Model the fold of this input.
Amino acid sequence: MEFVIPEHNIGVRIDMNQCLLDIKSSMERILNKWEKLPTIGNGESDGISFCMLQMMACKLNSFVTIASHEGQQDIESLSAIARGVYEMAFIYHNMFITPESDKESEILLLLWKIRGFNNRIYSNDPYQRPEHKSRDQKEVERFCMRVQELIKELNISEKASKQILHALDKGTSKITGYQFVKDNAIITSFEPISFEKTSGLFKNKEKLVLYEMLSSHSHPSYLGVKHFDYMHNVDTTEIDRVKEYLIQSVCYCSAKFMMDVCQKVKNGSELRENILPQIRFYVDISNFM
Done:
């Protein structure tokens, strides 16, 4: 696959299959290095980052295994994994990279935690122990109080404050991104960013169709069935085209996530050295895409 850097009109050809393996290798190198580093002084975000990196590595392993299968290509499973890779990269970038202050990042992190606990609080799981639900509710109450404290420390409008409090009180487990909209350093609004808004992760607007494309191939919808029928019974060359697009998407999202983690965590500069040079170059030129 060839990428063109517009400012210099330079074409760069990259083997995306090899790129995928290099990202997988780089991620494994980072995890191995991270396990040997001292954890004293690490913040909570470091622990979350390490766990999410492990989860991303598992997704990559599954994607590589399915993509390397020589028989009938399971585009639906590849799409589902690619969607999960994108969602994790999106949420991490939104919580830890885009906020302009530690207080803003903490609010997004707390909101993410609350939505997670809501999964159990509002669950009808008959096997869930009552004391667990009670404990989760107390945690949510504590998180909400902390958010209210943080709001008071921000340069923020009344409208934006109410929007944050409304997001806390929704009682939903739906995960989404959020943006602190500012005017002259004053937070004027707090707007949700859905996964469909890929500009939250990508600079180039041409990628705005990515999430819809991943969803259409992984959902058991009528459109998903139509896509499957077309690829397998009408034009089988479409399988290769979609697979290539999925590999490209996974490469960028997982590499971007890996770079974001190294930017955020305490020993990030040391961990970043374990990313193969060609992957750092790939992320850099991909920002022009």
